[in-house]
Amino acid sequence: MSSQLNTVPGWQEAVADKRQRLQGLIPKEWIIPPIPEDQQNVLDTPKDCGLLTDRELEITNTPDVSVILQKLANAEWSAVEVTTAFSKRAVIAHQVVNCLTEIFIEQALQRAAELDAYLKEHGRTVGPLHGLPVSLKDQFPIKGLETVMGYAAWIGPVAEEDAVLVQLLHQAGAVLYVRTNVPQTLMWGETHNNVFGRTLNPYNRKLTPGGSSGGESALIAMHGSPLGVGSDIGGSIRVPSHFCGLYGFKPSSHRIPSYGIVNSLDGQDSIPTAIGPLTISLSGVTAFIRSILNTEPWRYCPNTVPKPWVQDEYLLKNHGEGKKLCFGIMWDEGSVKPQPPVLRALGMTKKALEASGHKVIEWKSLRHAEYVAIARSTWLADGSEDYNSCLTTGEPLINSMVPGADPNDVPAFRVPRKPLTAFQQWQLNKERRALRKAHLDRWEATISETGTGRPIDALICPVAPYAAVPHGQTRSSIYTIIWNTLDCPALVIPVTKVDRHVDIKPSRESFWSDEDRAVHEMYDSEICEGLPVGIQLVGPTLLEEAVLGAGEVVDKALKAV
Amino acid sequence: MSSQLNTVPGWQEAVADKRQRLQGLIPKEWIIPPIPEDQQNVLDTPKDCGLLTDRELEITNTPDVSVILQKLANAEWSAVEVTTAFSKRAVIAHQVVNCLTEIFIEQALQRAAELDAYLKEHGRTVGPLHGLPVSLKDQFPIKGLETVMGYAAWIGPVAEEDAVLVQLLHQAGAVLYVRTNVPQTLMWGETHNNVFGRTLNPYNRKLTPGGSSGGESALIAMHGSPLGVGSDIGGSIRVPSHFCGLYGFKPSSHRIPSYGIVNSLDGQDSIPTAIGPLTISLSGVTAFIRSILNTEPWRYCPNTVPKPWVQDEYLLKNHGEGKKLCFGIMWDEGSVKPQPPVLRALGMTKKALEASGHKVIEWKSLRHAEYVAIARSTWLADGSEDYNSCLTTGEPLINSMVPGADPNDVPAFRVPRKPLTAFQQWQLNKERRALRKAHLDRWEATISETGTGRPIDALICPVAPYAAVPHGQTRSSIYTIIWNTLDCPALVIPVTKVDRHVDIKPSRESFWSDEDRAVHEMYDSEICEGLPVGIQLVGPTLLEEAVLGAGEVVDKALKAV
Questions:
Q1: Which residues of chain A have a CB within 8 Å of the CB of B425?
Q2: Which residues of B touch A383 (CB under 8 A)?
Q3: A9 pLDDT exceeds 80?
Q4: Contact of B247 with B281, CB cutoff 8 Å
Q5: Is the model's pTM score more than 0.90?
Q6: Where does substrate bind (chains A, B) (predicted)?
């Protein structure tokens, strides 16, 4: 196997063939006329194109996953019509933001028909996700389909069996129908590869939908899917959720089953990938997590902790039943100040919580640069051998997400490093452990300030220092990586949209770092106008239920104002 | 830092000083007259030496930890007198089997007096382990004391704070009073190092008490401690328990807090150390695990899963309330046939369970050689850099446990390997994951045979292919390593003692492997006469409570016959 990055003929043909096959899977009658190249906001295209019936628009515009599930469960909507509606809308979305990598609507409709028949015959659903269309990031093998994950070399072979999560989603009643785009290597906060090309942000196609689960975020923002499954090693669920106005949840890394997925840096277990949902409503996050945990995934996935869904934790029984909570708030991590819309979203959250009778105390940033440095050293410990082993066709490594960039212009956080020895990796693991201990101690120490007799119930912080940015302009994901290094569950809640009249660029003369200056300088309220802005809500490792319970409190408080 | 194994003057002086200081910590009046060099069984020395009062003998001979705890809790025995009794007996044991590395009886008695005062004043105990003397393997730092762990280079510096487990034991009411011996590097099934020398088996001092928690097993077998804490990366709790007739429990690696311990191969997180107890009774195991989990250790240790003690799992609520269970039994792992006493212990267990109304089905060995190979490759991935970094004083690396052996005569499983890269370690992690998945699937598949509608409730297997062996004769710990690679909780239950009239050496003509032949040939029923023999009881990862619950069933069944 060669790791040389030359360009030999061959891989382009495989890519052309794959693209053609993908295009061929779109039903002819669902092909829409091209929209103007200079139309940047395409959120209304599904409605405007005229392809969806009123009922299909009603179904796909439903803003709450629990409502969809309820209407499916009581047969007000059939699984077939819900699947048809979301399939159509997914395919429409794909034509304007290039979000799909696999389309298998026929199988989906067949499964939906089975579900309808079951419900009719037995008077009960197959499982808690009965009939819900669920999209999947291009990492979850499905028997008989390719899993390309943005590598030309992976075109061709088909999976011999489903990933464990695919099996469990099926068992829970979900309908799988499309898979979605990712960046080559997955280790980018944007979504572009040599096989499927670039995915665009439906709020503004000049911007990125984030990454690496950017096919998901673009698709779900267009309501081409009510809920999708992504993965997150440094922000790959959370950044796309934030950039596209979605709820997104990165659980701890051993809560949702990962066995059988394809992955980047596979076998790197020190700061590993976590699997979680991106979705239109918080009810979607909860339904997904609860449903999967109730299948006892640890019986099938050796990476999953045997902890069932704990309803009492979700109801915040040990957090004063959710009354008079105390949240921490971290406005910034000390090296990069968030842009005005992000700070405003944090402020709105604080105010809303206080108006609902909760307390919010300051959380000062602690050693965050170290969290990020450890993560990068760990992910680059192989000297890029993993990446190179996937480029055997001669397909070039993508070194920049800037459209048309010089391929030798590599951002600092992507510069390859000398391979580490296993012993050196062990030393990094020791440093990571010390950081995790420092964080635990810090969390516990808040007991003295909360007034509740408990440490803070959850921590509020930015998802990124900015809303969605132009292609190629995302920078180091410091605000999300922290929680991967610490393996803490982190929930993204959409809070507001950029308002250029309010979110005025401040004048700043001194900066905390070069990165800080760059982030300040790139802010342009005209470009950002109308973009969604979210916050992160973080809790202790493996206490997903409590984070979701606290998330309900935050979401309700925000919606009440 | 030099990794050359030369012998420079200096380290021997540090060792001499340390030994002298240790000797100085033994109260003069507790020094016993030397016993005959050729007296091999020293189990009765504590009684015979005449140093213990009748009441002290009664206290230390109590065969059940729960009885000790009860008498402490109702003030029938004071913490001071219990601490005094076990301290005395520990020091006596040390003089005949060389098991201690640190002695801090004064601090222990002070703590015991505090506990007595607390109970008197408040009418309740400090915690569930109130007044129980607990010994510690030489890996648990205690503020103000050295933690030498068998390395000359570690003599001198004292700990600035307690390991998390030490803090939690203190909080639970335990009295810490001694630490115990280990082998240099910890990675041996025996107990010998250049600082403290060799620990002997009190059943027969020509034999090893096992390792690496061999100071613990020798001490507890002599009732110099009712319960000790060890660690286990490949059998280091279980082999010593088996060799010394104790109950021993290796939980999953992230259940009992390890933060703050000193360790070998520190930072190696792929097949890591687990912390657990060695003790005189199953009630001791349960008391330890339950007490520690009830302190919520995950709030203080970043390596601990936030799973509290689940009483329903312990009561086997999901296992038919403990009635009509179905156990798997693995007679051997296919490459090394256990010696007659071990096979007899397994047979006795099967018979006892069947007589109590349970079912026992065959479990065929599966890929066990691979489990062991992965573990060895992982532990040796650093090319011995970790060991060498601890030998900076010129102290030689111990390459053989054979007394007086040629230091260049290295057993196969200890031969140093070429260092791996981090990327190579990642590939090993992938193999380990695949093995864990194969095991899960196999476990689930037993549903078709159990007749309970569940997979087997637990698996019975050997701890080692032999009972205690002469110093230097332990071999690869295949039967225990399997469960470290799979990270399954494994409980050792003492079953019987070798009876030379029953456990007759069979005549065998063909062998499964060289190892098999060697294990067969080394069996000598005369040497083994009277040695304890245990079995292992194994369950799924992180389901410690169910293994202990099933352990009660097995223990009761064995005691009933």
A1: 267, 422, 425
A2: 421, 423
A3: no
A4: yes
A5: yes
A6: 186, 212, 233-236
The DSSP bridge pattern shows strands A133-137 and A227-232 to be parallel
Confirm whether A241 is a catalytic residue.
no
Average pLDDT over residues B2-8: 40
Q: Per-residue confidence at B9, pLDDT binned at 50, 70, 90?
A: low
Q: Do B102 and B138 meet the contact criterion of CB atoms below 8 Å apart? A: yes
- Across the strands, what pairs with B230? B276
B199 neighbors B181 (Cβ within 8 angstroms) = yes
Cβ contact A498:A528 at 8 Å: yes
Q: Which residues of A touch B543 (CB under 8 A)?
A: 306
The pLDDT of residue B452 is above 90: yes
Instruction: Note the pLDDT tens digit of each residue in A293-335.
Output: 999 999 999 999 999 999 999 999 999 999 999 999 999 999 9
Closest residue of chain A to B254, computed from CA coordinates:
A305
- Going by DSSP bridges, is the β-strand pair A175-180/A100-103 parallel, antiparallel, or unpaired? antiparallel
Extract the tokens encoding A48.
Answer: 């405007």
Q: What is the mean pLDDT of residues B197-224?
A: 98
**Smallest Cα–Cα separation from A386: which of A347, A417, A412?**
A417
Integer angstrom CA distances of residue B477 from A3, B39, B373, B399:
40, 29, 11, 17
CB neighbours of residue B407 within 10 Å: 11
Active site residue A212: yes
Strand duo B458-462 + B326-329: pairing: parallel
What is the least distance, in Å, from the CA of A263 to any CA of chain B? 11
Q: Do A306 and B439 touch (CB under 8 A)?
A: no
Q: Which CATH number fits domain B319-381+420-561: 3.30.499.10, 3.30.1330.30, 3.90.1300.10, 3.20.20.70?
A: 3.90.1300.10
SS3 assignment, position B345: helix
How does pLDDT run across B530-553, given as a tens digit for each residue?
999 999 999 999 999 999 999 999
Query: How far apart are the CA of A155 and the nearest CA of chain B, in angstroms?
Result: 22
Query: How near does any CA of chain A get to the CA of B131, in Å?
Result: 28
The 10 Å Cβ neighbour count of residue B143 is 12
Indicate the SS3 state at residue B247: strand
- Could you tell me the pLDDT band of residue B160, with boundaries at 50, 70 and 90? very high
The whole-number average pLDDT for the span A336-360 is 98
Mean pLDDT computed over A529-554:
98
Topology of the domain comprising A63-493+501-560: Amidase signature (AS) enzymes (3.90.1300)
Q: What percentage of chain A has pLDDT greater than the value 90?
A: 94
* Catalytic-residue membership of B351: no
Rounded mean pLDDT of B372-400? 95
Residue A298 at interface with chain B, using a CB cutoff of 8 Å: yes
DSSP string, A445-501: HTHHHHSSSSS-SEEEEESSSSS--BTT-----HHHHHHHHTT--EEEEEEEE--TT
Identify whether the C-beta of residue B507 lies closer than 8 Å to the C-beta of residue B461. no
Q: Do A540 and B301 touch (CB under 8 A)?
A: no
* CA gap B81, B441 in Å, rounded: 52
b/e string for A396-431 if b means 16 or more Cβ within 10 A? ebbbbbeeeeeeeeebebbeeeebbbbbbbbbbbeb
Question: Is A430 in the B-facing interface, judged by CB distances under 8 Å?
Answer: yes
Enumerate the domain spans of chain A: 63-493+501-560
What does pLDDT average to over chain B? 96
Q: Which of A306, A441, A541 sits opposite B306 (nearest CB)?
A: A541
Hey, do B45-309 and B319-381+420-561 end up sharing a CATH topology, with the first three levels equal? yes
Does domain B45-309 fall into CATH 3.40.1010.10?
no
Select which of A137, A250, A337, A350 is catalytic.
A137
Give the mean pLDDT of A246-251: 98
Q: What is the ipTM of this complex?
A: 0.96
